[in-house]
Design goal:
single chain, 215 residues, mainly alpha, 9 helices, 0% strand, protein transport, transport
């Protein structure tokens, strides 16, 4: 464990807590893409297949359980909670997210570190996570009016991935033979997708103005 990995994990956890805070306290999911949340649920379900078979540490197991449980509970709240689901903007959240799943799966079958079920699913989860934010970004561009909690949630997600890239760079120089090109490239793609959002987020922060993305 290094400082970049820990900071990345805590930032990722903070993003989940911000979203749950919005849903539980305000009883609203306005501005949140159900499509993105469903993709994240698939990401964690396929990445953590080893949760009950390969024990690494208590910290590792707890974090996996948190991200699994939170991702599926968020999907449930948006779909089924009698109050929260009323604020879901189905008419704007129309990105055909399942069209992202098949290409990522095919890519994982072709490019993986070892051709085993777990390794293919691990690669698939990385590829899918890289593009899972797309429905959310499209929704924000369509609605334009972004509340503070939603903006913080997306910012923290992007920051988590950027910190993980620093973690991989650090491990490359401190651990012998630590080379995972699949992880690096998918993480870089994911971070680049946030670049436009980061620009407008910092502009709104600098000017003390409400965050808005161009249509």
């Amino acid at each position: 464990m290094n400082i970049f990995r820990l900071a990345g994990d805590m930032t990722h956890l903070a993003s989940v807590l911000v979203l749950l805070l919005k849903i539980h306290t305000i009883k609203s999911c306005a501005g949140i893409s159900l499509k993105t949340q469903e993709l994240y649920a698939i990401v964690f379900a396929t990445r953590y297949l080893d949760i009950f078979t390969d024990y690494i540490s208590l910290y590792n197991t707890v974090m996996k359980l948190i991200f699994l449980g939170s991702s599926f509970s968020i999907v449930w709240y948006i779909r089924h909670h009698k109050i929260v689901r009323r604020s879901y903007d189905k008419d704007q959240d129309t990105f055909r997210h399942f069209f992202l799943v098949l290409p990522c799966l095919l890519l994982a079958l072709v490019i993986n570190e070892r051709f085993t079920f777990k390794e293919v699913m691990w690669a698939f989860s990385l590829y899918l996570e890289a593009v899972a934010i797309l429905p959310q970004l499209v929704l924000l561009q369509r609605t334009r009016n972004i509340d503070n909690l939603t903006g913080q949630y997306v910012f923290l997600l992007g920051a988590y991935r950027a910190l993980y890239i620093l973690n991989w760079v650090y491990r490359h120089f401190t651990e012998p033979r630590y080379v995972h090109w699949i992880t690096w490239i998918s993480g870089l793609v994911q971070t680049l997708l946030y670049a436009d959002f980061f620009y407008y987020y910092f502009q709104s922060w600098k000017n003390n103005a409400k965050l808005q993305l161009p249509a």
